[in-house]
Amino acid sequence: MTSPKRSSRPQPAVVFASIFVGIFLLHFPLLQLPYFWDEAGYYIPAARDLLLSGSLIPHTTVSNAHPPLVLAWIALWWKYVGYAPVVTRSAMLVVAAFSLLGVFRLAERVANTQVAIASTLCTALYPVFFAQSSLAQVDLAAAGLTFWGLCAYLEDTPVQVAVWFSLATLAKETAILAPAGLACWELLRFAVPQRFVPQYWTSDVGTAAPGCPVERSSTAASSRIPPLVLPLLPLALWYAFHYARTGYVFGNPEFFRYNVAATLNPLRFVLALGLRLWQAFGYMHLWLLTVGMLLAMMWPPVQDQEEDDGVERSRIAIPVQMAFLVVVKMYVVAMALIGGAVLARYMLPAVPLVIIVGVSTLRRRLRYWPAAVAVIAVAFIAAWFWNPPYGFSPEDNLAYRDYIVLHQDGERFLEARYPNAHALTAWPASDELTRPWLGYTSRPVQVVRIEDFSLEQVLSAAEFRSHFEVALVFSTKYEPMRPLLDRWKTWTDLKRRFFGFHRDLPPEAAARILGGQVVFTEERKGQWIAVIEIQQAEILNAEIPPVYNRRW
Known about the structure:
Strand content: 5-15%
Oligomer: single chain
Number of domains: 2
Shape: globular
Structural class: alpha/beta
Strand order of the largest sheet: 4-3-5-7-6-8
């Protein structure tokens, strides 16, 4: 017979439908946007190859060995609904809603329904999660499946643990970090002599109700570890298949060098570790929750009145918090060690765990905790639109929309004015111009590609200016007007050495070096794009077009 407490919990289907409707309405103005950055550079071409040829290995772009689960999901939607950005983004919103349902179930399992609602809301509004929700990338899907796997781990259901974590690793290979960390944690907990372990570590994280752990046993350990190790099998089979088809295991050699070989430097690891800790606990106004949680610890737990006795609000069981900490630590350390770009989306499996613990602490320690959660939610929404005073990736908030609109305007201008010209530009605009199915142009534009618009690259391009008639230059990195940290030359030098930092030349400077004239320019919140006509070349247009200057 179902207990009254369990029967009062909301039905998963109702929660999923509510979440999906909510995030769909929030993302509705963004659903028609063309593809952005890594979407255009890899994920959409790879999914399109799968749709058209049935090949799990892309051939119109260089394979980076990511498992194909998310690409297959997108291709399936294209096949039965149609190829369009709105279809792609709707498919990804389904994934985001399912991921948020995983957050809800996990928070409800370890705390209660109130904490689950607040944690799910904060996660959905967190700028990085919000921006990634409709983008065709794999990190959010891997994070969502990890939440489901972690929930199954806490409920001690071995088959579900193996299935969810296996699916997570087939969404992205780095998802193996969570089950690997938990397996090591299980080994540590049951291998270390009990007299050396604090008493609150010696209870089981599964089978008991939240806050009521049971005593540990070697039988429980032996039954939990195999499901956590099993996800290595499908990942190994994928890599074996990839090697058989391409001749290399972990992506093409350049991809492996950039993300692994070039990152194994002690100083870089320390710097990246600091950045990962910031992304896990402070990035995009997350520090408000972290600081609020720490300050709330100064107050005693709230006593809820029930009849004549006060009942202290419960906390998340310590073994559960330790399991969360293991997953967060695994991602912080591993993502500091590997990954050429220190992108915040790589930390999506860790941040919601921090949010759940933070919200639970606020509820336990503050009587008016909903007000604190409301402040945090408003701060997260503000971070959708407000760019921080330091360099960040535009995919971490709505700056990605500004990027897309800029490139739509600039590339449509270039296509209309110079339909037969060769255009000098850099990635990802080079893909946007040559692949009309990405949504930026109506026909392919011939391009001459350089790496970026730094002084060195533009000087190099000027030596073969006869090969192009026009240049499309744009900001390849966000740079605030008054950078907070770049005033320190040492930090700038370290970023240039370890994280690929460079400064793009402004359009006027690039035009002088290339021997051209700026004929179109547009700017939005620190990002810009410009079209430069190379005056030495013979352009089909007899008259020099007027300069278009837009500033937002």
